[in-house]
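Narrative of activities, Objective 1.

The group set out to show that a structural description can be obtained from nothing but a protein's sequence at a throughput compatible with the screening campaign. Below is one input-output pair from the validation batch, recorded exactly as produced.
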Amino acid sequence: MKPFLQLAAILLAVSSTPAFTQDAGQVERVRLGNSCAKCNLFQADLSFLDLSGRDFSQSRLRQSDLSLSTMNQANFSGADLSVSNLFGGRFTSVNFRQTNLQGAILVGGYFGGADFSEANLSGALISGADFQNAKISQSQLNDTCGDEFTKLPAGLQVGFC
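Output recorded for this entry:
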């Protein structure tokens, strides 16, 4: 029983550390238009912003709101965007290489020219999104769901939700 209590105490201590909460200063710098690679932007509200060309590589954006934002040519490589809302956003030529988009909402977004190489899209909702000319694979799409309005590169398909 004692090892279990020690493990529980360690897990409680780790889960309550500030490293798991957003860095308000970093979020504010991004909202002012700055890049923020390797930042902790957990649950950040970046909706309606134009942050084109900014660098968010290896940043933690889990559960963030990027709805109706413009992020053209931004770099999200290696970032955690799991369970985030990208609804209706414009992501032209964005680098999503090795990005975690698990459970993310990409509904109605534009992703023309975006690179999703090695990205995790498991459980993502992509209904009505435009992926034409995006670098994305059928194996990635197999774990997503969309609808008849989802636009994909030639030869690819998505299951309906």
